[in-house]
Amino acid sequence: MFGDNSCPPPCNTLGFLQKNNSLDDKGRLAGQKNLLSCDNSDRDARFRLTETDFSNLFARGERHPLTRHIKNTSSFTGAAGVTLVSVSLVGIKSTEGLYLLPAKNGEEPTIQFLLEMVDILTNYVKKTFDRSTKVLDFHHPHQLLEGMEGFNLELSDQPESLEQILVDCRDTLKYGVRTGHPRFFNQLSSGLDIIGLAGEWLTSTANTNMFTYEIAPVFVLMEQLTLKKMREMIGWPDGEGDGLFSPGGAISNMYSVMIARYKYFPEVKTKGMSAAPRLVLFTSEHSHYSIKKAGAALGFGSENVILLSTDERGRVIPADLEAKIIDAKQKGYVPLFVNATAGSTVYGAFDPINEIADICEKYNLWLHVDSLVKQPQYIKTYIKLCRANSVTWNPHKMMGVPLQCSAILVREKGIMAGCNSMCAGYLFQPDKQYDVTYDTGDKAIQCGRHVDIFKFWLMWKAKGTIGFEQHIDKCLDLSQYLYNKIKNREGYEMVFDGVPQHTNVCFWYIPPSLRGMPDGDERREKLHRVAPKIKAMMMESGTTMVGYQPQGNKVNFFRMVVSNPAATQSDIDFLIDEIERMGNDL
Amino acid sequence: MFGDNSCPPPCNTLGFLQKNNSLDDKGRLAGQKNLLSCDNSDRDARFRLTETDFSNLFARGERHPLTRHIKNTSSFTGAAGVTLVSVSLVGIKSTEGLYLLPAKNGEEPTIQFLLEMVDILTNYVKKTFDRSTKVLDFHHPHQLLEGMEGFNLELSDQPESLEQILVDCRDTLKYGVRTGHPRFFNQLSSGLDIIGLAGEWLTSTANTNMFTYEIAPVFVLMEQLTLKKMREMIGWPDGEGDGLFSPGGAISNMYSVMIARYKYFPEVKTKGMSAAPRLVLFTSEHSHYSIKKAGAALGFGSENVILLSTDERGRVIPADLEAKIIDAKQKGYVPLFVNATAGSTVYGAFDPINEIADICEKYNLWLHVDSLVKQPQYIKTYIKLCRANSVTWNPHKMMGVPLQCSAILVREKGIMAGCNSMCAGYLFQPDKQYDVTYDTGDKAIQCGRHVDIFKFWLMWKAKGTIGFEQHIDKCLDLSQYLYNKIKNREGYEMVFDGVPQHTNVCFWYIPPSLRGMPDGDERREKLHRVAPKIKAMMMESGTTMVGYQPQGNKVNFFRMVVSNPAATQSDIDFLIDEIERMGNDL
């Protein structure tokens, strides 16, 4: 039917065009927008779907959900500014009728489909930043598995129509969590940066692989330049050194341990751990569990990851490190590696890098810094990152870059290739016409490697270094605001004294029923259950989310982190109000 | 200036509306589309950018690149079907004037910006499938680093305007490689699946993390159901078992080695490799280098990854495996793990899984299968995947899912948590209100884990199992077509005899100057240089891309793989024509 390329696609023969759009109408449309923004319609639409008769586009002579949906919403004229006149997707089937690209005549339905998707996504983006929407619409696993309002997660042998696919996409977002919502404080990776988002869309569209310059020339160079810039900010001379973007901070930390081992015992690469003495690693009892995981995975054994004691603020006590190094040596172990944390997960603590670096130099150990944040004022105040042998730097945390975006940075140039390369001839041919030192794949433990650099590069371009700094400053200010608000407030106890070192504010909410109770097991047990209960209520009401956890002998407490650029003081106020509202009767 | 929320955003006051769009115009627009598709304009635009006076939107009183661009292109009326009337982004600054969300009044510029980006991306998608466009516009690293036509890769402290950001995005795509182009055959991960692309856009917009059900409820369940479905297809009873999506096949293979070690020597997790005897791993000399990398990383040592001999078709010789197991045992090593490959990287060879499984059972070894493809006919013909203890399955290869999408599947339930969990209380609280067995994070070696499932789930919904099978069948047919075309053609020699087991077709092109030359070192040396030279010419002309490599004692040959759904017989013909055109005078 549509085999003739010169024939306009059948969609063009429909009545899809927008009427009455002239300059004279701008006031009307603008007015309508205000009307629309007051109702709770699901489609405060940027795109206008016209009242088209779709019946001749039905491939199977039946009405599909999307049709009804369009019929219901087509009376909305879109907000002014941009108007999209769209033909319906009804009738675009994967199995019959029109097909998507690369099919012949697939361009029209493809663009239509993508624009419908963008309509869904831009609506989601708008709602994400809208405080009148919920952070989440919580359901238990069994509820979602049973199929919420026809949302069927099961896969089948037969294809679904594209209308259903779009419905599936709406449902996926509907039952998900808005991690960019101004009141989502659950994780340090929060917020929805628009430039980062656009960068990810481009990355997906380019759909390539970082392993060779050959198929990712621009991205490989962006990675190289960005890593150099990051090394300059760390303070290594001329930004020289090595590095890669890896799929997350845990893998970056794992790289650091592998590289340290290769530096001191290169024969382990070929001969295994039996070629080395019994090695031990050191990290804070407050550090991220990934160092322990790396120790287990790489063959050191988790027991040989020795945990360092911390002060009341969660910072490693340097004397404890030195004592444990000496102790390990006396027991016949060989200390290899120290992980220092610049911004610990729970307390946001900064280990005293300078003192730790002194000890590492004295005992000839590799110093890695697992760094939450790169910010000049922190470098001055707490840390001398340049003294590290390697640094994990996660732009997907405080810098607000979409997940995944983590870099491992190493001071010694060329060591990653030494550590990891296997010289697979089928991938990394030495006889290419370009400078193959740009092929980075062989220094990774991955083969295919996702393009994580572009969104970060694009955000850096759009914000400048200064923009990242302003963002982090704003988050720190908000944390300070929270700290000041609750430190002396009735019903709150801080987990540690003094101003937090980073955005982390750790506190207990004490319900009225516990306020007069003397300290002891009963109170501890009751208090331990308060944060989980409040959190469950938050999730079920969908109003906000904040993390909690125990730490050492401290019962469950809230850990507030701020990294979301959408958050304001009013959101902090809201969180406190919610905690008190929910916790008052516990 | 725009501080009043009730006031329509200033963009609305512009003359942006499309004129003369009525039902009567559909023919004219449709006709124009045909006209447009004959010209080589950069903007065979889906979106219509109107001839708006943008001067009052300049924040800094100067013209920016995007303005000129819009001025230049605004005379194009868009293709029929969808028309987007867009206001310009000029004047939307990160530093002054309007701001993107989460700024007040940021909704309008945000949606505008995202739609501009979508315009760029949909144009790229169209060109990707257009055979009249190049696969790539090759430049050497130093050329791109010097800045092509103002494309500046360097980062700075100060922000760039959003116009410049959009120009940067266009340039990024311009100097990249179109991995979805019908004539891109360079890697097995090729093609641009529209559903997969849409899925990635949604994933980016949702921007969450797989580690807990709490913040990724829908995605966690999709992963669980999809993994179960995959295990059912492998043939494990009731689809029971374990698994995860990981950032690529190399990491999936690494998981398999870790899990095997944990199964036989669980104490290694805590005590390190010194708690185990000296372990050896086996894999084909033709297998992916990731097994060797895993051996090096995990502390076995790459020398303890023993390479198995293959037959002339690149398949492991089972007797060689058994001999090497016996030999290792005699030397005091403990054989632990065998990797069998179902679809090797270069030859596309399928190791004889059944015989290998027999040997693994006899000697009590872990059998892992690194599987290129999951397809019923292959399971019947070559492989009994269900006999494996673990399987790597990469949907980003033959199934055409965008990178990254790889799963590690394990027959034994619960073993991944046993192997990897560290029970970090700050992340995986046991006292949540929902069933925390859905929190998958602690069985991964990653902490943050990117959502790789959604695009795959969505493609599976849209295509059905049947759609994936049809796609793979089509790729196999095309490879067969290529094989039949060149097997007896003058100037071609096949690297191995017989019909390829998979889509891989490995061949030498023999230029006329070498055709009469007797075999020997001189011919081998010259032939070794032919494929790199042709490949360089391909890249410089930008017409097509295909991989080459040496293998063992075989000099450089072309390895053709077909996984791109856009490829047709005419593209195979084109490739052969190009090779002959470029190679004729070598």
Structural account:
2 copies of one chain form a homodimer. By secondary structure, chain A is an alpha/beta fold. Chain A folds into 3 domains: 10-178, no CATH class; 209-450, Aspartate Aminotransferase, domain 2 (3-Layer(aba) Sandwich); 461-583, Aspartate Aminotransferase, domain 1, CATH 3.90.1150.170. Chain A is 40% helix and 12% strand. Chain A contains 18 helices and 14 strands. The first copy, chain A, has helices at 26-38, 65-73, 107-128, 141-146, 162-174, 194-206, 217-234, 249-264, 268-271, 290-297, 318-330, 353-363, 376-381, 415-420, 453-486, 512-515, 521-541, 569-583; strands spanning 48-49, 83-86, 184-185, 242-246, 279-284, 305-308, 334-342, 366-371, 390-393, 406-410, 492-494, 505-509, 545-551, 554-560. The first copy, chain A, has a 7-stranded mixed β-sheet with strand order 4-10-9-8-7-5-6, with helices on both faces. In chain A, helix 3 runs parallel beside helix 5 (162-174), helix 11 runs parallel beside helix 12 (353-363) and helix 17 (521-541) crosses helix 18 (569-583). The longest helix of chain A is centred in the last third of the chain and has 34 residues, at 453-486. Chain A is globular. The N and C termini of chain A lie far apart (68 Å). Strand 2 (83-86) of chain A pairs antiparallel with strand 2 of chain B, so a sheet runs across the interface.
Which pair of chains has the greatest number of interface residues, and how are they split between the two chains? A-B, 197 and 197 residues
CATH topology of the largest domain in chain A: Aspartate Aminotransferase, domain 2
Q: Count of DSSP helices of chain A?
A: 18
Total number of distinct structural domains of chain A: 3
Q: How helical, in percent, are the residues of chain A?
A: 25-40%
Principal-axes shape call of chain A = globular
Q: What's the pLDDT, averaged over the residues of chain A? A: 84
Return the CATH architecture of the largest domain in chain A. Answer: 3-Layer(aba) Sandwich
How many individual β-strands of chain A? 14
Main pleated sheet of chain A: 7 strands, mixed
End-to-end Cα distance of chain A: 68 Å
* CATH H-level superfamily of the largest domain in chain A: Type I PLP-dependent aspartate aminotransferase-like (Major domain)
Oligomer: homodimer
Q: For the CA atoms, what is the radius of gyration of chain A? A: 28 Å
Low-confidence stretches of chain A: 1-96
Question: So what's the CATH class of the largest domain in chain A?
Answer: Alpha Beta
Structural class, from helix and strand content of chain A? alpha/beta
